[in-house]
Amino acid sequence: MSVPLPTIDQIRDAAARIAPHAIVTPVLRNAELDALAGAQLYFKCENLQRGGAFKFRGACNAVWSLSDEEAARGVVTHSSGNHGNALAMAAATRGIAAHVVVPEGAVRAKLEAIEKAGAILHRCAPTIAAREAKAAEVQQATGATLVHPYADTRVMAGQGSLVAELLAQSQGLDAIMTPVGGGGLSAGCSIAAHGLDPSIAMYGAEPAGADDAVQSLARGARIDHFTPDTVCDGLRTLIGEPNFHALREHQVEIITVSDEESIQAMRLLWQTLKLVVEVSSATVLAAVLKQRDRFAGRRVGLVLTGGNVDIDALPW
Amino acid sequence: MSVPLPTIDQIRDAAARIAPHAIVTPVLRNAELDALAGAQLYFKCENLQRGGAFKFRGACNAVWSLSDEEAARGVVTHSSGNHGNALAMAAATRGIAAHVVVPEGAVRAKLEAIEKAGAILHRCAPTIAAREAKAAEVQQATGATLVHPYADTRVMAGQGSLVAELLAQSQGLDAIMTPVGGGGLSAGCSIAAHGLDPSIAMYGAEPAGADDAVQSLARGARIDHFTPDTVCDGLRTLIGEPNFHALREHQVEIITVSDEESIQAMRLLWQTLKLVVEVSSATVLAAVLKQRDRFAGRRVGLVLTGGNVDIDALPW
Q1: How far is CA A84 from CA A3, A68, A94, A181, B93, in A?
Q2: Is the CB of B275 less than 8 angstroms away from the CB of A271?
Q3: Domain residue limits, chain A
Q4: Which of A145, A152, A176, A278 is most buried when burial is the number of CB atoms within 10 A of its CB?
């Protein structure tokens, strides 16, 4: 594992570092959803974070962790989704350049948002190899620091900062559940939660069509070839190497949900909680409702990761 | 004016009375919307209130203002919308009966929600005369206390409670804007705002197709015959008599907006603020964007009144 996991102290530092820029997102409760689940649910609303997703935390911590000299050369990443946008916004808070490598065929609206946030776009072929090659090329040409979307210590530490807020806002929890994609959120949150209260049970929600984390945990080694097939566009990434180790170390139990279950849960969140959330975020509610007995009577924190949805193309 | 306006002390009492039951809703800010408006906008998210609308505040204050003897006989209202639902939920917090008179032809989903909240429905013909007659009949038969949706001192006091929260959450404001329908919210908020800080300028937003408040203020007397024509279903009521006097006394300036402007603002709130809000709520943002010069550079509180939307029939 070449990328070290963050420590609880690094997560605390991250929280302090991003405080001037990030939003302390609210935690919402809802009597109707509690009754449905038979549990006390605490929704951490990262869809209300800057840029509409938790990704701003990790990107912001990475940007403000750089020395002045490093910062002057900018940052680079390959992501056409929420992380690209978050890195662009984070770079803007420090007034430095952000280079974002995007594959041909990426959603135009997302690219426009990234450009609007001030990033320089670099196009490449839509393969992982082409993205990594282009990012390396930009790094060499500019001296920019690579900020990986999830396999990055500073990014994981930034994501973990939300757990300290959640625990303070809810006066303690029995369990916390996050969606699992690349695993940056799950890793950061697990380290933060157990650093503050080792008794908290950590859970992940993964789409059945992208269950590489479940399979990796079952066989005890990370799967690195897998073609995800799910409507949850934010969770199509494979779990990262350091992230996989964090999930094992912190005994994160993963519950898989069907796309249909996630879409129904998304609808329920819109109608009941009055929040615009992505289908990827809704996996956590789908998982709690699917395994009702497991969560009955417990205080469960659910991380609603983002709200960047095309409201003209809703999945129901 | 037979119904007295609440005093600031009654609003303070209301805030304390509903505190065990109501949610202290978050105030959200958004850099993108601030830039669009050229102002500092503070969104008071009453769509995140219990029942999905600010109406719970007034209904809850009315229910808990009753003596034990009065409470034992229940409460009654005529409203198939958010107030009927709010009164049902408020009555449930005290374990008393709620009677809700609903016109034939009311939206089935809304009626189901009111019944689910525990109310007894009473059907009548879809005219104001029939609704009032049926409510009077229920009152006589049961001894229940009438809780009018807006022309009621306790209801206005309850709605006003949100302003004290908003001012504390925003560290002071130059202006506050609410939508204007029956005027219970606007009256309560104006009295609360000026009781706490007389320098705050009060604004209302009214659909052009339901501008009876604007017309009433212009001619100095309340219009009581008017057929509203607007997509803003929460604002189709005529302004109440005591409410009209409150608006005059507190020099509430009303800005009218077209349905098209409200629908565009609603879309913007969904996409940018990541909140499910009703089109009636979006009138306040539409008004600020329409009169950009008037609000430039000011700290403006905007009350997002509710989020009870049929997500299968969006107006865009």
Answers
A1: 20, 22, 16, 16, 46
A2: no
A3: 8-54+152-304, 56-146
A4: A176
